[in-house]
Design a protein that fits this description.
This protein is an all-alpha fold. Helix content is 46%, strand content 0%. The N and C termini lie far apart (66 Å). Part of the twin-arginine translocation (Tat) system that transports large folded proteins containing a characteristic twin-arginine motif in their signal peptide across membranes. TatA could form the protein-conducting channel of the Tat system. Its main location: membrane.
Length: 81
């Protein structure tokens, strides 16, 4: 764990406790944990940490905004200007 000794971890925890207080520190920890979970979920690295595999969305289909059969104009300039 980053090569930190137990005494160094206690010192860091003490400094955090002094800076944020005993009531704010659990809120910071939970918000940091949820931010990391959302980051991992955004990259597809982790499903829900609670082990609730039943909520997994299946499918793999993409929703489109309308018909795809519309004519598309070329973005390259024409030679007859």
């Amino acid at each position: 764990m980053l090569g930190l000794k137990p005494m160094e971890l206690l010192l860091i925890l003490f400094v955090l406790l002094l800076l944020f207080g005993a009531t704010r520190l659990p809120q910071l920890g939970s918000s940091l944990g949820s931010a990391i979970r959302n980051f991992k979920r955004g990259f597809g690295g982790e499903e829900d940490a609670g082990g609730q595999g039943g909520d997994k969305k299946g499918g793999g289909t993409l929703a489109t905004g309308g018909n795809v059969d519309k004519d598309v104009k070329s973005s390259t300039p024409s030679s007859h200007a």
